[in-house]
Amino acid sequence: MDYRGKVVIVTGASSGIGRVTALDFARRGAAVVVVARREALLRQVADQCQAVSPKSFDLPGDLGDRSFAEHVVDETVRRLGRLDVLVNNAAVSKHKHTYHTTASEAEDVMRVNFLSCLWTTYAAIPPMLRQGGGFIVQVSSFAAKVPPPREGLYAASKAAMNAFSEGLWNDLAGSGIHVGIVHPGPIDTEIWDKEDEPPSYDGKKHPPEIVSDAIREVIERKRFEITIPRRSPQLVAARVMRLLAPGALRRGMAWMEPVPDELLERARERSRKGKRLGESD
């Protein structure tokens, strides 16, 4: 596919998957609009994109704010006249035991990981309809297929993204707008250093470039779903067990990351005091 003259939005572009994806599109000639909260880092990415694609620019802000999420699409179309590709990659991690989480945290995760995707997608559909088509790529997670321990909130936000996107497959038929989902497994980004509680996973982490390659495959081959890395024995085994032996999968997860007795007892004690989940003593 010739990306010269195309306009691409990449959210969560200040580092990791979003950064390499934005730079990949820029090197291929697309005008790239990079979006994230960390303004200084985002500016660096925008500068690198502009060096090879001068029309690229940055829009720093919080995608958890609906008005800003919609503004990203509106401002892109206003300044560049069209929108060909929307990559919804922005997300916050949440590796934290349920007993330690709060309802407010759950709302924050859903707002950034799912609702921002819905807001930008809804804003992108009208201009894509006007121009005759476009591509929307949702960067989900394998956790949405097989939720790991302590990641129920994160997995739920990505599962919501998946169901929303799958519903669009039929609803947008004949529009020229293609929606695809990428499900990354463990990717080597800074997200591992930002977890609320130490993750138990200590296996191989894959480079973010495999995600940017999958994003382009969604576009160029009109793929609906891609799980990467494709031949990971861990991901294949987890998916098969989830479908055919869910009880064995649950026992395996409980063995790898059991709930400590003291954690359960502290949760019971707080409940006796009338505390909600996540409230301090």
Structure explained in plain terms:
With 281 residues, the protein is an alpha/beta fold. The chain has a single domain, classed as 3-Layer(aba) Sandwich (Rossmann fold). Helices cover 49% and strands 13% of the residues. The protein is built from 9 helices and 7 strands. The protein has a 7-stranded parallel sheet, sandwiched between helices. Helix 3 packs parallel to helix 4 (103-131) and helix 7 crosses helix 8. The longest helix is centred in the middle third of the chain and has 29 residues, at 103-131. The radius of gyration is 20 Å and the shape is globular. The termini are far apart.
Strand content: 5-15%
Main β-sheet, spatial strand arrangement: 3-2-1-4-5-6-7
Q: What is the N-to-C order of secondary-structure elements (H for helix, E for strand)? A: EHEHEHEHEHEHEHHH
Which topology does CATH recognise?
Rossmann fold
- Return the structural class: alpha/beta
Could you give a short account of the major beta sheet? 7 strands, parallel
In quaternary terms, these chains amount to single chain
CATH class: Alpha Beta
Mean pLDDT: 92
Count of alpha and pi helical runs: 9
Number of E-state strands: 7
Radius of gyration: 20 Å
* CATH architecture heading: 3-Layer(aba) Sandwich
**What count of domains describes the coordinates?**
1
Q: Provide the helix percentage.
A: 40-55%
Parts with pLDDT < 50 across at least 5 consecutive residues = none
Principal-axes geometry comes out as globular
CATH H level, superfamily name:
NAD(P)-binding Rossmann-like Domain
